[in-house]
Structure formats: C-alpha cells, structure tokens
Amino acid sequence: MPPESARLSSEHGLGRLPEHIRGFALMHVAMRRDGARLLAAAPRTTAATAPALAAWFGRLRAVIDWHHHSEDDLLWPELLRRSPGFAGADRALVEDHGALDEAMDRVGGALAARGAGPAPLVEAAERFDTLIRDHLRQEESLVFPVIAAMPTGAYLALERRIIASAPAAVRTYLQPWMFDGADRAATAAVAATIPAPVRLLGNTVLARRYRRTLAPVL
Questions:
Q1: Do 103 and 128 contact (CB within 8 A), yes or no?
Q2: DSSP assignment of 199-218
Q3: Measured between alpha carbons, how far apart are the two ends of the chain, in Å?
Q4: DSSP string, 127-153
Q5: Torsion-angle region of residue 88: left (phi > 0), alpha (psi -120 to 50) or beta?
Q6: Considering the entire predicted model, what is its pTM?
Q7: Per-residue pLDDT tens for 145-178?
Q8: How far is CA 163 from CA 138, 166, 191, 193, 210, in A?
Q9: Which DSSP category does 74 fall into?
C-alpha cells in the first residue's frame, strides 16, 4: 500500500480524498488545469489577443495570490500548532510561493510585451506550469496528511475563515472557477458546504460572467 502522503493527492481525482479536504484540493486541480490552458494558449497569442489572455491570467493570479497568502497567514500557523513536525515544511512552502510569484511576473511581462512574438510567453508559461505542478505535488504530500488528521468540524471552520479572507473580486470568481470541468459526484461534498443562495448565484450569474472571461482563452 502506498504511503499516506502518496495516496492523499489531487492529481488523479478527488475520490480517494477525505471529503473535508476536497474543497482545498479542488483549487489545486483548477490551478493545474489553468496552467495547461495557458500553455495551450501561449503559442497562438498575438498582439490582438494578448489583452484578453492578460485579463484572464490577471484573475487567475488574483486567486493564486490570495490562496498563497491565506496559507501563509492562516493555514500554516494552524497546522504548525496542531503538528509541530510541520515546522520547516511551512518555510519551504513560503519559499515556493515566492518562486511562483516570480514566474507569474514573467507571464505578465510577456503578455504586456505584445510586439515580442509568442516565444517569451511560451517560455514563461512553461516555467509557470512546471513550478505550479511541482509545488502542488510537494504541498499536498506535506499538508494533506495533517489536514486529514484534523477533526472535520475544526478544519471546515478554518476553511470558512480562509474563504472569508478573500477579496470580493476573488470570492465572486472562486466558485465557477473551482467547479469548471469538475466531476459532480466527486465534488458534491464541496458544493454542500456552500450556502444555497451563494451556490445559486455561483451557478447562474457568476458562472455566465466566468464563461465570458474564459472564452478568449479557449
């Protein structure tokens, strides 16, 4: 049987994960999905299409920036309190976040340099995709076993604090972004944690707005 850190991964779907981890894992799935989308879009980006791609990437970056800050400021301290062995892992993950910031800066710079052709954007997209996948794999191996050991209620209360820390622009983007392409059966437990009025808004008005921002990328 594989070790716990290997089994607790979102790379091959959410079905093997404890239900209370799946919301967190769904964000990781969405980040990898959008890394792949950026890779696919980069070679065919022109000066005319770069602004739409830049607008989409700006929204993705806002989600990732918030996700990282909420981890650094809220999640890691709580995991460290519950599992002193997490010390050191938190520092390594914060350093990873810094490297990802630099990679996202490079993507943004390449999108702004519209007359330079697609090569700089392709290179920046490849680096971002590699870093995000490596980081998420490492993070899940360190973090998911600690979260899995937490009482479900305690973790979900912490998750609510984390979601509440999101800026308004991120909160209105988050639900359709997370559920884009997700398997409904695997994510039913995540959907159930969202208040019904918020879930309805996310499935209608916010979903339509999300699809409009996504259309130029696809």
A1: yes
A2: HHHHHTHHHHHHHHHHTTT-
A3: 39
A4: HHHHHHHHHHHHHHHHHHHHHHHS-HH
A5: left
A6: 0.92
A7: 999 999 999 999 999 999 999 999 999 999 999 9
A8: 23, 6, 14, 12, 19
A9: I
